[in-house]
Structure formats: structure tokens, C-alpha cells
Amino acid sequence: MYIKRVRKSNRNSKKVYEYLHLVENVRTENGPRQRLILNLGAIDIAQEKYKELANCIEAMLTGQQKMFSTDLNIEKLARKAADNIRAKQASEQSTQKTDSIVDNEQPEYQQVDVTSMQASQVRSLSPEYVCHCIWNELKFDELLVSEGVSEHILPLMQALVIGRMVSPGSEVHTWDWAEYRSALYELTGRPIRTSLSSLYRAGDRLFDCKDALESHLADRERDLFDLPERICLFDLTNTYFEGQATANSKAKRGRSKEKRSDCKLLTLALVVDEHGFAKYSRLYPGNQVECHTLEQIIESLIALRPNLAKDRTVIMDAGIATDENITFLKANHFHYIVVQRGKADFTADETDAMHVIRQIKQYTVEVKRHSMENESLLFCRSTGRTEKDQGIRSRQEKLFLERLQYYQGGLGKKGHTKLYPKVLEMIGRLREKYPRASKLYDVEVIPEENPGAKIKAKAIIWKKRPQYDTQCRFEGCYVLRTDRTELTDQEIWETYVMLTRVENAFRSLKSSLGLRPNFHQNEDRADAHMFISVLAYHILHTIEYRLRQSGDNRSWATIRDILSTHQRLTIEYNVKDQGRIQRNHVRLCSNAEPEHRQIYQRLGLSETPLPRKITSVK
Question: Measured between alpha carbons, how far is residue 205 from residues 62, 210, 458, 514 in Å?
Fold first, then answer.
């Protein structure tokens, strides 16, 4: 085999393209001809290296390791070409042997050179296999094809979504993972074009189908698991950009939940049901005020799924639960359970009149209820939240008082700040830094009695405010507001704590699904990147929910690590057949171990993801 350069021109632009073809000479009835083995594409390599590359490819196919090139770039190109040739031969060969017992294969004995045996092309398979099966169960392909997506693009779309679950990262990282470290394309079929640009365009096309996909997935998940969909949990989170993102109108500076105030942000609003299944998502600028998003989200959700507008309960945190939003929910016939801003008309003395509604080893929850005509207010306190609030307050109080003592001591020392305006400024900054401690103390800066040209501070005096003890008694307390007056105290509280489901969804998006950071500078590409993570969450949550139904409460991150050892690989060896030596390549899966089989059984999957394939090179 050898390499030749091929030139092709475009009739319209008259532009000439050059490619490298790997060919071999064969005898035919019409004389010797060149047979194309593989189109190597437009690779950048000097002409004098053609022979070396061709020899290295042939050596890899025939197992002649001594003929491998010492040039690392040549070896890398040769290995990629050899992998593509093996894949092409495997797809063309009609004889495929599977691992299935029902085939009743007869033993086959060959004369094998054991010193020639090698293992190669080791690829990740099992996590991709599980995600691929859930992708098919959720019928992604059917919906995408109905939306006009070409079947040739579907493998790239799977790579984007499943790559976000198996090896989260940027699209560049996903492309590299799918090409060189994963056997995903053996499950999906290899796309016609696998370039990075093709992957980006597939992501753009996915985002074009956003509304149709979210509506389809919500219906499909409801049918699969018989979901009641009585509760809508609503919350927002944000992610940060790497770079300035000047071309993105949504990239704004705001309050980063990851403390990345140095970066521009993008906000994601998510609606999930009581079982944690995502129903709708929407993207907002990074400086979006939380309370201004509810009306738009609910209207969009009703437009997509009108049945959700009937007798549903919306659960929100205090940041979104304004009086205007509650009025909007009432007008649209939604019930609500929200966190009331402030403590309403509850007093500190009522903390002594609370009754216990839940008591377990980890925490205790106490409540006190005030009922009105069409609403109920539930005053709640949990031991876990009390300990958290006390810890934050005591730490801030300690640091606040230590700093005040330092400022006071510095008034009588050389080199310390003494000017009265400057001392007031330092106290103001200290109050801003430790707000919980600040509201518990009165601080007074006393100027000197006979000031000169510049007024100096003589002393700093602080004391606890009268409401100090009252504020401490409110630690760990919050008020729930609801129009579901028929519910008991325990039912109101248990329904509210479902809000942790959406927080768990955000945690999965940020940790296991590569939501952050966002490297895209273009608005459409940044939106598509976020939406791909939301689609990946649908698959992730389906896997975790099905495992929980079998009593397995492990997270996807743990499942992924366990499955990572079940892989796809190629075994190469030389056999002697009728006096001739030929190189056999067996593409197979490693044996599933007990922990792999347990996961497959709980998900209802076969323990053999792909059949065995055998190719021969003479």
C-alpha cells in the first residue's frame, strides 16, 4: 500500500482541494488497478513522509511492531488510519460472531502465535451504553427526526449529550473524547462527518428543537413512570463565562452563586416536578432579578403544556415569592407554598409554643400555625438550620468584635488610623462585611473633646442591642405561606422541602454535567451549551430514579465510576492458515463483573453491550 495525492475542484468557485488517499495495487480482469483503502483527508504532512506513513499503517495492521515509525506525529496519524480501516472492514464483513449463548457456537481451534498477541483500541463503553439505552427509551431520535433532523446528525447529538454525562467539558473536549476515548460511535453508528464544526452545528440544531424536546421528554417521562405532576418546583441558578463574552447580550455581571464575581454570568431557570423530573427551562441574563422571572416561565410552561395549569402547586423560595408573584399565581389558578419574607406577625415567645412534626436522629422540626381566611402561615424551626444559623452568627460575631477591639487598641498606638472620618469609614465597611453580627450591636465612635485642624477619634464603644436575645431566639426559623389550607402542618412542610429536588438538579448540572464554566463567546452557542446540560439531566435523572425504584440510592457519579471498568478493546494475534500467516483482530467487550451486572439488571439491560467482531488482514 502507498499514499497518493488527489486534487478535486469546485465547479462554482474553481477552488482546488487536495486529499491524501491510501491505495493498493490489485490484479483485475482488465489488468492492474488501484484500490482505495482509505481517504486520509487533508492532513498536513511532507511528501517525503508518505512512504513512512504507509509503511507504519501496514505495520499496525499486520502486527509488525518493528516497522513502527519513530516520529510520534507519523505514529499518531498511522494509528488513527489503522483504527478507521479496522472499523471499515468490520462493517463490510458479513461474518460477525456474537457472545450470545443462544448461538450455540462450536469451538474453533487455530494455530496462534502467542507472542504476537496484543491488546489495543481500549475505549470506554459501559457508561455510554447505559446512557445510549436511556436515550433510546426516551425516544430522542423519533422526536428529532420528526423535527426534520437528518439521521446522519443523530450520532453527533448523542455524543454531545452523553459526553456531558460521561466526560463533562467543552465541545472541544467532547469531540476529543468521542473520537479517541469512547466507543459511543460503535453503539450509535459513525456519523458521516465527525469534525468539530459538525459537532458545533449539531448542538445548534439541538437548541433549535428546544421547546419540542422539552415537551416530548416531559410527556415521555410521565408515561414511563406514571408521574402525577401535581407539584411545580421553581428556582434559578447561574454559571460563569471564561472570557469577556462581548458578543453575548445575556452575559452580565451579577451575584455569582459560585463566588465568581470577576466573571460575567448567565442565569438558568428550571421547573421540576415533585419527583425531580425537569419540565421546562429558560435562560436569562446574568444580572436577572429572580422575582421578575416567574410570570414568563409560567406563561411559557402553560403554552407548552396546558394540562399543567390545572390544580397545580408551585413551590418557591423567598427570593421569588413577592406579593406580585403570588397575586399572579392566584390569577392563573395555581396553588402555592412559598417562603414568606420576614417573620410575619410571629413573636419570639411563640418559639416556645411550637409542636414537633418530625423527629429523627439527624434533626427535629417544630412548627406553629396561624390560619387566615384563605391562607395559612406556618412558623417552622429545625435543629439543623438552628445549628447552621448559630454557627454563622457566632463566627461573624467573633470576628466583628475582634476587629472592633483592634481598631480601639490602635487609637493609642503610633501608625494606626485615628482620624474620626476614617474610623467611621472602617466601622461602616466592617458592618458590611459581617451583616449578621452588625445588626446585633450598636457601635459609637467618640471624637476628641478639643479637636484641632483634623478631628481624631478618642474611643470606640459597642454594646449589644436590646433585641439581641430576641434575634437569637429566631435562629433556625422561617415562615411558609400557602393557600392549601386543607393540608396539615406536616403535609405543608413536607411539600415545601421538595424544593431540595430542584437544588439537587442544579447540583447535578454543575458537578456531573459540566454546566460551568461556559467557554462560548457567542450567545447562541452559549445557550446551546446550557441546554445540552439540561438534556443530559433528563437522562441522568431517569437512570437515578429507576435505580431508586430498585432500592439503589447511589448517584450517577458513583455509577459512572463503577461502570468505567467495563470496556471495549481489540485483541490482535497472528494465526497460521494453510501455511500462510494472517493477522486477526477481535473487537470485543471485557467480561461484565458482578457490580456491572447488578446495575444492568436493575436498569433492565443486557450485560453484553456489543457483539464480538472479527476481521483478518493477510
Answer: 42, 9, 69, 20
Q: Is the previous residue joined to 609 through a cis bond, with omega within 30 degrees of 0?
A: no
Contacts 24+ apart (CB under 8 A), 60-65: 61/85, 61/86, 61/583, 61/617, 62/583, 62/617, 63/116, 63/118, 63/572, 63/573, 63/574, 63/583
Q: Which of 466, 474, 471, 472 is nearest to 350 (CA)?
A: 474
The residue among 449, 494, 442 whose CA lies nearest residue 463 is 442
* DSSP category for residue 591: P
Q: What is the pLDDT of residue 580?
A: 85
Which of 517, 537, 501, 508 has the alpha carbon at shortest distance from 238? 517
Q: Tell me which amino acid residue 65 is.
A: Q
**DSSP line for 73-123:** HHHHHHHHHHHHHHHHHHHH-S------GGG-PPP---EEEEEEEEEEEEE
Which positions ≥6 away from 369 have C-beta within 8 Å?
376, 377, 378, 379, 489
Alpha carbon distance 418, 413 (integer Å)? 9
Question: What is the Cα Rg of the chain in Å?
Answer: 33
Examine the pLDDT at 95 and tell me if it is beyond 50.
no
Cell of 597: 451486572
Cα 562 versus chain centre, distance: 19
Rounded CA gap, 325 and 234, in Å? 12
The residue among 571, 589, 564, 565 whose CA lies nearest residue 86 is 571
DSSP helix/strand/coil, 406 = helix
* Lookup result for grid cell 431540595: 500
Q: For the whole model, what pTM was predicted?
A: 0.82
Note the pLDDT of residue 618.
64
Torsions phi, psi of 12, nearest 5? -75, -45
Cell of 300: 411559557
Integer Cα distance of 52 and 97 in angstroms: 35
CA nearest to 198, candidates 232, 230, 157: 157
Angle between helices 556-563 and 126-137 (to 10 degrees): 130
> What are the C-alpha distances in Å from 337 to residues 162, 163, 347, 375, 386?
35, 37, 21, 10, 22
pLDDT in tens, 461-511: 999 999 999 999 999 999 999 999 999 999 999 999 998 888 888 888 888
- Nearest residue to 591 via CA among 266, 132, 170, 125: 125
pLDDT exceeds cutoff 80 at 601: yes
